[in-house]
Amino acid sequence: MKYLKKIAIGCFSATVLMSGSVHAEAISSDSVMQTQVAQYNKTQLINMVNRADVQSKLVSLGVDSNDAIARINAMTDSEIAQLNNEINQAPAGGIVGAVLTVLAIIAILDLVGVTDVYPFIRPVNS
What is the b/e burial string over 8-24, where b = at least 16 CB atoms within 10 angstroms of the residue's CB? Predict the structure, then answer.
């Protein structure tokens, strides 16, 4: 019985020693906002890739839209924000679609590794 008691005390002591300490802190509204903005930017890019006109352009270039979406999902929040910022600053009017298409094509070509225009985009296969 003493042997069983010593094993139980030893197991309990080991568990307490290995558990470590717990650290908790409040989540700031700024960090929540940054997370939501990053998610919105990613969703905005994925929605653009899912548009029929962009998909037809991707197909004509030999790029699968699933590869483009996988690359978008692999981009960091700052890369996505920079790309979205460039897209959103395109001039308004009749050429917005053309500018967006050109930017998307260049980004997709960077994703595939054909070009190296955007320094923040890394090719999928690297």
Answer: eeeeeeeeeeeeeeeee
